Amino acid sequence: KYDRFKTVESIPLSTNAGLIIKDSRFSLRYDDATATFTLSIKDIQENDAGWYQCQVLMSISNKITAEVELQVRRPPIISDNSTRSLVASEGESVQMECYAGGFPPPKISWRRENNAILPTGGSIYRGNILKIAAVHKEDRGTYYCVAENGVGKGARRNINLEVEFAPVVTVSRPRLA
Questions:
Q1: Architecture of the domain delimited by 75-164
Q2: Which residue numbers delimit the Ig-like domain (predicted)?
Q3: By three-state DSSP, how is residue 18 classified?
Q4: Domain spans of the chain?
């Protein structure tokens, strides 16, 4: 394993047919029929991601190299800096934010409870930030931030929006007979 930009920082894993690295997750297999070496890594971890290089030294001045990049796929995790709940007064502008980590980078979408129509129109909004220019009492309730990247089942955070509004008083008109 090596850093493509720093040739000094490579970590030799094997020499000839023997592993140097003392990690039981790594194994090296040689196939006589095809004259190929295969490096296997069990229980892949995030820090295994990176570039791997195979070098075959024919002589001091002649070597054959092959490189491969290992990308470790990770399911989405919604970040702590995402909105958890909001309280706003009717007419105010509100902004709900949702950020997630994972690989490949997750896509963020917003939904409302029971697939109710979002203030932006439609039942789904795509993007990290859901803005409501002037919040109304009908906008109150639970919003869902959903992060998906095709790895695992995705992640979801419930965000509760409370809207404070002036009381509405209705008086029934007395009937005069």
A1: Sandwich (2.60)
A2: 75-162
A3: strand
A4: 14-70, 75-164
